[in-house]
Amino acid sequence: MERIVKDIDDIVKIVRFPGWQNTSEGKREIKKALLSVIYRKYKIKDEEIRNKAYEYIEMYY
User: Fold this and answer.
1) Residues 15-47: pLDDT tens digits?
2) Which residues in 22-39 are b (16+ Cβ under 10 Å) and which e?
3) Do 27 and 20 contact (CB within 8 A), yes or no?
4) Among 7, 41, 43, residue whose Cα is nearest residue 57
5) pLDDT tens readout for residues 42-60
6) Is the model's pLDDT at 10 over the cut of 90?
7) Beta-sheet strands, E only, within 1-59
8) Which of 20, 38, 51, 59 has the fewest CB atoms within 10 Å of its CB?
9) Distance in angstroms (rounded) separating the CA atoms of residues 16 and 26
10) First to last CA, the chain
């Protein structure tokens, strides 16, 4: 679990930009990055987990 959180943190820090939460492009890029970690790397297909992870990112990044 700790590894996936670190991977998400690392990719979000690369993709985000100031004010990303207020743009459709920023939201789209974060969601794509999140998908690449959760689905492609860890093979987690649970949409609820992805949504919760995105909500956390949107709130704290």
Assistant:
1) 999 999 999 999 999 999 999 999 999 999 999
2) eeeebeebbbebbeebbe
3) yes
4) 7
5) 999 999 999 999 999 999 9
6) yes
7) none
8) 59
9) 7
10) 20
Cα–Cα distances in Å, from 33 out to 12, 56, 60? 7, 14, 16
Please answer whether residues 53 and 36 qualify as being in contact, where contact means their C-beta atoms are separated by less than 8 angstroms: no
Q: Supply angle C-alpha 8, 9, 10, rounded to 5.
A: 90
Residue 23 structure tokens: 């743009």
Quick one: tokens of 16?
A: 């985000």
pTM equals 0.88
Q: What is the DSSP letter of 1?
A: -
